[in-house]
Every structure is written in structure tokens, then in C-alpha cells.
What does this fold into?
Amino acid sequence: MKKYLSLVLFLFVFVSLFTSVAFAQETTPTDNQVNAIAKQLFCPVCQNTPLDVCPTEACRQWRELIRQMLSEGKTEAEILQYFEDQYGPRVRQEPPRAGFSWLAYIIPLLVIAAGVFFLFRALKGWTKAPVAESASGGVRNDVSKKVSAQDDYVVRLEDELKKRK
Amino acid sequence: MIPDFGYGVLVLTFFMALYSAIAGIYASINKSQKLAESARRAMLLTFPLLSISSLSLIYLLVNNHFEVAFVYEVTSRTMPTYLKVTSWWGGQAGSLLFWSWLLSAFTSAVSIRKWDRDREFLPWVMVVCGITLAFFLSLAVFFENPFVKYWQTMSGEIVESVFRVKDAILFTPQDGRGLNPLLRHPGMVIHPPMLYLGFVSFVIPYAFAMAALITGRSDDRWIRLTRRWTLWAWLFLSFGLVLGGRWAYDVLGWGGYWGWDPVEIAAFMPWLTGTAFLHSVMIQEKRGMLKQWNMILVILTYDLVIFGTFLTRSGVLSSVHSFAQSAIGPMFFGFIVITFLSSTALLIWRWPQLRAETEMKSMLSREALFLFNNLLFMSILVVCFWGVIFPLISELFVGEKITVGPPFYERATAPLFASLLFLMAIAPLSAWGHSTLQTLGRASWKSAIVALLITVAIFFTFTQSVPALIGFFLIAFALSITLHEFWRATLARVHAQNENFATAFFTLISRNRRRYGGYIIHISMALMAIGIIGIEGFQYETQGTLASGESLNIADYTVTYRELASWDDAPNGVNYTRAVVDVSENGVYLGTLHPRIDYYFDAEQNMTIPGLRPSLRDDLYILLVDWQPVSSMGATFKIYVNPLMNWLWLGSLLFFVGITVAAWPDKDPEAQSARVRGKVYHSSSAD
It folds into this structure.
């Protein structure tokens, strides 16, 4: 009995293996499968147009190429790599994270970090500065009057709200 | 005849602008009233002159003068007259003329009134505008001339030249190439002028800022004088950006509204600095701080405006090599460098005079939060700017062409935009001068709870995605705080003035237009953010080829292909291919949509028009991708479901309401600012 069971199991696995291979060969990849990959590529001819929506004839052929490669069993990574090898790194959506192109990622971070650093340093300097009257006392007074006057609106608003209660 | 006349007038205007700038400098230095008046009159003349030159071009466009190269390139016989007129800005040469025309109109508007009031600033404003105008006119006169004609030489060769080429006869093509079909869409007809209006209006605040630097006035007068210009500039630029997005959604056929394309970013960058500027000038007005920073922002905005025009016009984006080949590329580049360096030099010269009049007292005060707001806008700018120029740098230095596409920008800017939403929520609650965590917390905890409840509801009904939930929380937080502010203030008015709710609400807004206009803009931004999260995070798509009667399913929708027809519209030079599809949702029939492809014979180009079923929940967006011959009746459709998309358009409509409220002219702005300067800040000028 046990012998039969393992034989049946073996046959089942064996047959299902073959049928799945046969399926892979028969069904052509759907448009959605093609687009999922084409979406990640930029049209090698047109400026800044993703391959899945590019209406040119060349792009239609490239999408067919993706379909063909998918039906040959190529993986997504292999297809993306194929396009990159053929047409250069600009077919990818982003600069490669290697070599010179690292700068694309690093520079904005550095600049923003520098901005944050300087802003906080300036703020710290301002907030810690002694509140002693400066030489330009007249101007200062004017400005503080300005501020208190414009806060007037808020104060009045608050008063009216309190009265209501 | 007409082309020569138009060109002659253009050349004359160029010299007029140049004269106005030079005479203005000379007059200001030597304090010559007479010469200053002469410079002003020369500037005032540029507007009628450019109008005549532009009318000549429009005459040529409308009357099919294909011997003129520009007319040949942008029009054709089948185009309707209104499109022929708008082709004025449909190509490079014409759009440079259009830019110049707008600038001359604005400069005239500034100098025709109030000349006596601002005798100090206006001559220098004239100089700055005159230099800018002369630069743009020089491009049109020497490099991208819209009046160049075709000549056929004895050897049969066709050459382009303004004047008769020796032994050549005028060559008139039978028909023009026609405007790029994508530009024939109503959205695209008004999108460039809106963008240009925004671009050009920003020149005015810049000119006043430079005038303030040159004359050494360190107060906020230049800001007060140009506040409304800045707001209108911002309105036009925003309107231009939104129209561009709507246009992309309607005709570009990729299911989206914004693709982080360098040309889009080029228009977005001055918007970023302009928005930062609009916020930070308030600190200068209220607190006398950040004077230097405001100068930096207005200089950046101006040069980004020129840079934006340059990016779209120089061909630099396709390749560094085409930049070198186009004549105007290096001209633009040179102009940007010169204006940037000279403005910066002026700023450094006046740096000590522009010190702050008060000090920052608290990290949570309104002015500190405005600074964080500026930091965020500048950070987004850094990402955008670097993303746009890095491909050029890479090509230039290591010879490698690369693409900086949407994922780069989205990843980098999403947290920045989220932080902006947060600031937008709490900043209106903080006070000028001093705020603490306690005061902010007291003012916002109720709204935070409301927002949290909404977020929990969204968690159970719509999505469990953490980034989206954070986004929705921030939106709900900002909305509830801002709406609460409206509610509180209106109730206070109802009580104090014994008005009914509606009267109180409208009087409140009209008495404090700047404050509540700003709040309306904040609400609109939050609504737009709903749409952006919806389409960025939850867009689905599917594609398939259907025979008649077959269906595709997406989300709860079923799209069934019925039939397809193709016909020529000869008078308009278009072939239409239109599919008929039935749409149902969960088995309930909703209606019929007609995605189509328009083929323009003159331009030999397709335009894909989606079949669109919009709703507040989502847009069903169907594109006809391809079709087989009519006999087999098969067609390929690409279908998108774009959740919450309409909130973006709704938000942008509200946005325009907000800016209009904030920028609506006062009865007498001079009297008002006199009152402000005098002693008391009335509630009407608060915020």
C-alpha cells in the first residue's frame, strides 16, 4: 500500500511538473505582466516617457520584446538588465547607485542637512541672544508695538470668545 | 511686407528697451529728472510697439503666410482661426515675443501710475525691467526671429533669412505643418499664457527688490508695494501648473497629471521659491526680520523664472550637445549667471543694512515655524533642481546619460510635503513672538483627536498602508484646525455683532482677507493632498485586448467593449477612431464611455483622448491603445482607476478662490499702508 502511495505521489508530482512547464510555454504573457516591467523603463528614444505608455512604434516593439523575453522564461531583473545593457543606464527610472551617479542621491541630502544645520544654529543664536535693548532701541520699540498691535486681533477674538462663555 | 514691418518694429523696440535701461541708470546716478522721464516714456512706448509687432505676427498666422518660417511651423490651413491666433505662443520664436509683450505690459502698468509716489524706486525698477526686456527682445531679434522668411536660391535650395537672399525668390509652401496636436487642447491653449503671466509677474517684485537694494532702503516698502503683484504672479503660476496637470490628464494618455518631467519641474521651481517668499515676507512685515533672506528668495525666484523659460526653450534637456548647438542656450545661461551674480553682489553690498530689527524669541513662535516652512520649500527645491540638472552634469563629466525619474522625486519629496502639511496645520495656531508647546498643545489637541478618529475610520474602511495613513492624519489635522479657526472666529462675531452666521462668516473673511484667504488656500492644499495620495498610492491599472462583447474587470468596474468606428473629418484635417464601451459597477450599468484616438494629418501625430467617468470616490479612465481592422473588431484598452483624483481638481478650484480673496485690491492700498505705518494695526490688515 505504502509502495503504491509513494508511486502515485511521485507520478502526481512528475506529471504536475510537466504540465506547469507546458503551461508556461503555451500562455503568452498578458499586457499587465508586460506593462509591469515596461513601467520601470524609460523609452530609449523619447524624452522622459515611461515605456508602458509611450505611443511610438519603436516602443511598441520594445514591449513586444519584453513579452517575448517573458515567454522565454526570463525574470524581471534579467529583462531590466538586458535593456540597460543595450541602451545604457538612462532607460532606468533612476540613476544607478554606483560610481559617479551616487552624487545624484548624496548631494541633495548634504545640501538639505547643511540647511537644517545652519537654520538651527541661527535659531539657537537668536533665541539665546540677550534681550538687552540694542542700540537701535527706537526701531525695536516700533516693532514690538507692531507685533502687539497685530496680536490685538487675536486677543480681541479670544476676549469675545470668553465673553460668549 | 508685413514680416519686414513686424521685424522693423521689433528691432525698434529692442533699442527702445535698451535706451530705457541705460538712460534710467544714467538718470538715477546723476539725479536727472528729465532723463528719468525720458527713460520712462521709452519704456511706456515698448508696449504699443510690441503690440504692433505681435499683431503683425498674428496677421501672418491667421492669413496663412507660409513663406514665414514660424507661420509654416505652427499653423496649417485646416486650423480654426482662434488656434491660429494662439499659435503665437505655440513655438519658440513666437513665445519669446509673447514673453516680451507681457513684460512690457506689466512694466508699463507699474510705471504709468504712481510714478510720483515712487520716484525713488521706479527709475531702478524701469532699469531692471528694461534690461530683462532687452535681453528677451535680443533673443527674438538676433536668434529666434519669428519673422524669418523662406527663400529659394537659383540652385533650388531653401534658406531662411529675414532679408532677400541674393538671386533668390520668396518661397511659399503650399501648407503649414500645423500646431502640435497636443497643443490644440483648450487646456493647452491657455496653459502657456498662464505660466508666462506668472513667470513675468515675478519680474516686478524682483525689480522692486533690486531697486530697494540699490537705493539702500532697508524697510519693507518694496514688499508692501509688490505684495499684490506677488500674489497675482503666484495665482497665475499656480493656475498654469494646474492647467498643465489637467491637460496632461486629458490628452497625454498616461493616466496621470504630473510625471516629474523636467519641463514640469522647471515651472514648479519658481513656484516653490515664490511660495516660500510669500510666507517669509510676512515675517519681515510683522517683525522686521529675514530681510536678507527675502532678498535671496526673490533673486532665486527671478532666476528660476528665467531658468524655467530657458529649460523649456533651449533644448538643453534633450542633450548637452543640442544645448551647444542652439544659439539661445548659451545666451540664457550667460544671462542667468550675470543677473544672479550682480544681484548677489548688490545684496552682499547692502547686507549690514538688512539686519533684523528684532530677535527670535522662541523656536515655536510663528516666525520660527515660518522659517521651517521656508526650509522645507527650499529642500524640495534642492531635490528638484538637482534632479533636473544631474543628467546634464552626468553627461558632461562622465559622458553617461541617465534618467532621474518619478521614484527619485517621490521618495525624496514625500516626507518633505508631509512635514509641510504638519506645519500648515499648527503654524496658524502659534503666535508671533512667543509660543510654547503648552500653548500649541492646548490649541490643537481637540483637532488632533478629531484627526485621529478620522484616521482610524480610514484604517478600517479604506487602507492599512502606514504612509497613506500618516498622510490622511496630517490632512485631517490641518483641515480640522483650519475649519475650527473659521468656526471660532465666526461664532465670536455672531455673538459680538449680533449678526446671523452667514453674514458673520462673510464679513469675517472680507474684513481679514489676507488671513482668511490664506486659510482657504491651506484648506485647498489639504484637499489637493487627498487627491495626490489617492492617485499616487492607490492607482490600479489593467490592459487587455477585447473582441466585441468581451469585458475587462478592474476594481468593482466591468468594462465591456461594444464597437469601434473610424472616420475622417476632412475640414478639420483629423481622423477619429472612437470606441464605444459600456461600464458597469458590481453588475449595475453605469453608462457608456468613448475613448478615442485622433489622428492629425498635417502634423502626422496621434492624440489619445480617454473615456473618463469621474466621481469623488475615483475616476475610471479608459484609453484606447490599439485596434485591429474593423472586420475583426478587436481593440486594446488600458484602464486606470484613479482613486480620489477629483479632490485634486476641487482643491485647485478652492485654491483660486483663496488667492482671489487674499489678493483682491483694497479700496485704496496707499491709504491703508499709511494707516498701517501710522499707528494702529486694524483687524483688516492683521496677518
Q: What stands out?
A: The radius of gyration of chain B is 28 Å. Residues 668-687 of chain B have pLDDT under 50 and may be disordered.
